[in-house]
Backbone:
């Protein structure tokens, strides 16, 4: 072999066989990544074994929890889990925790904060189970090849580097070397071969389409005009928009402005979609820094476009990493379930205190980007997005700069520089209090039913500060 | 006989009315905690303005504004031919 430093890794053919090598009772801190999102088959496959064996006192560190991860619900009901640390939680597990809490602590982190905690040894992972679509016998892995390719493996990289034991779980093993692997064989202890790691069509969520809803279209138009008036759409600018329908519509409107005025961006970061790939291939942006693919077109692009880079969560958003990509970010477009008069944003719980999501990279990018813009309808199903106080703080108001709705735009008073730039604007700029009053004119003032008695979890910012608590509903 | 108006789309409500010996108002709402009293008031006021004192009203609400609830209810009443104005 040319690469004589590579050594082949133990190839394991069943989970039973794996636990012949690993003591289940000595290694109870387990991590998983969520790149396969709702199509993941690995987490349930592995945890089913813990259900069968009745192992208790488990501590889970999945980067996110999706509705398909039902094995976690079973473990919770069996009282086998002590603590869970994650960045996003949705579905039956989220509902269960909202109502019951955990025996230990439920900690919600950010994508950058999770990477930082693992690197600093605050999150001690015993076994990282890493769903890997394309693996060679030396334990190198990439996410953008193989029958279940899902794109970037960004969230799993730090797990592979710092876990006591790293297990790649794969359905595709090759003999050839892999150039620029995302997971390095030197960090891998075992390769577990399974029939299928899941269904990669499950990485697409229902919202990854450009909205046609007239309210969404209006919000996007207001946003692209705002960015334009602030002088942010200029040669070499950088931009992140995620995969929400309104955010993607903003991307489309920004694209039109760029084409009209012959502007080229330097990079787009974050979750990447086919719309971002199109702009790369049309030469409208130099590079894509991709921590997670939101559709298969993005996953396939990683293979063919050399300027589409898969990056780790630490390179993406770890505040202690000097190479952190988002510190150079000019503009981020983000959503909100709620925003309050201090510009604190909630994307963690709904207004009935049920956990429905979490930060992901929300707080990371809002903290680092030069301008952070929240896009949301002012009124959603009779509830105004603006509250006097959000149900749960996901992102601190000091890091949130603009709120764009269909009925007006509010700028955080901390950003007098932006307010000054907009003083002659024809856009409907108002205070957030004025927007709230406008909404109450239509909806009436809601009764506040939030219960803050029993703490069931904590919101840990990327700084490690606990910025809010979750309460039993 | 049951008569309906509206839909179960977000920000709309689905009103079902049927004949009854008494006045019964049932409300199922995604924002009941926040706006249950407001919804009851707009239904009661609308029935009063049509001088209706005996009816079963079921309002399945997905976050409709007051004027939506009012117009859905009035449509149902007119469809039933119970307009006593």
Residues:
């Amino acid at each position: 072999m040319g690469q004589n430093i590579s050594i082949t890794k133990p190839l394991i053919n069943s989970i039973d066989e794996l636990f012949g090598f690993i003591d289940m009772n000595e290694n109870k801190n387990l991590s998983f990544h969520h790149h396969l999102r709702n199509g993941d088959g690995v987490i349930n496959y592995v945890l089913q074994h813990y259900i069968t064996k009745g192992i208790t006192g488990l501590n889970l560190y999945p980067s996110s929890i999706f509705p398909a991860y039902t094995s976690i619900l079973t473990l919770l009901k069996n009282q086998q889990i002590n603590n869970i640390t994650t960045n996003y939680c949705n579905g039956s597990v989220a509902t269960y925790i909202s109502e019951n809490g955990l025996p230990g602590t439920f900690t919600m982190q950010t994508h950058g904060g999770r990477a930082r905690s693992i690197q600093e040894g605050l999150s001690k992972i015993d076994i990282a189970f890493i769903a890997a679509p394309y693996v060679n016998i030396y334990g190198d892995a990439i996410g953008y090849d193989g029958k279940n390719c899902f794109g970037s493996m960004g969230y799993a990289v730090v797990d592979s580097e710092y876990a006591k034991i790293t297990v790649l779980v794969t359905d595709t093993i090759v003999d050839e070397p892999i150039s620029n692997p995302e997971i390095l064989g030197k960090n891998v202890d075992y390769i577990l071969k399974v029939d299928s790691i899941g269904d990669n069509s499950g990485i697409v969520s229902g919202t990854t389409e450009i909205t046609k809803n007239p309210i969404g279209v209006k919000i996007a138009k207001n946003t692209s005009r705002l960015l334009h008036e602030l002088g942010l759409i200029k040669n070499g600018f950088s931009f992140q928009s995620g995969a929400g329908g309104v955010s993607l519509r903003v991307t489309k409107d920004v694209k039109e402005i760029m084409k009209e005025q012959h502007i080229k961006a330097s990079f787009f970061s974050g979750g990447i979609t086919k719309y971002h790939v199109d702009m790369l291939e049309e030469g409208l942006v130099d590079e894509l820094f991709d921590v997670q693919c939101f559709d298969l077109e993005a996953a396939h692009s990683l293979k063919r476009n050399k300027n589409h880079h898969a990056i780790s969560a630490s390179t993406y958003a770890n505040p202690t990493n000097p190479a952190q990509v988002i510190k150079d970010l000019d503009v981020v477009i983000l959503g909100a379930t709620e925003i309050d008069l201090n510009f604190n944003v909630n994307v963690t719980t709904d207004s009935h205190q049920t956990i429905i999501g979490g930060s992901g990279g929300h707080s990371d990018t809002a903290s680092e980007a030069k301008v952070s813009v929240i896009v949301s309808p002012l009124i959603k199903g009779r509830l105004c997005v603006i509250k006097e106080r959000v149900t749960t703080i996901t992102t601190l108001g000091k890091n949130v700069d603009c709120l764009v709705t269909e009925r007006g735009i509010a700028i955080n008073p901390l950003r007098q520089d932006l307010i000054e730039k907009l003083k002659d604007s024809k856009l409907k700029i108002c205070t957030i209090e004025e927007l709230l009053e406008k909404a109450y004119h239509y909806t009436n003032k809601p009764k506040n039913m939030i219960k803050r008695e029993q703490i069931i979890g904590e919101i840990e910012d990327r700084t490690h500060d606990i910025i809010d608590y979750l309460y039993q509903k | 006989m049951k008569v309906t108006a509206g839909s179960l789309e977000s920000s709309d409500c689905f009103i079902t009315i049927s004949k009854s010996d008494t006045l019964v108002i049932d409300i199922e709402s995604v924002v009941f905690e926040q706006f249950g009293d407001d919804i009851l008031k707009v239904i009661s006021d609308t029935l009063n303005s049509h001088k209706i004192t005996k009816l079963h009203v079921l309002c399945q609400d997905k976050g409709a504004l007051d004027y939506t609830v009012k117009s859905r209810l009035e449509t149902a009443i007119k469809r039933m031919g119970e307009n006593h104005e």
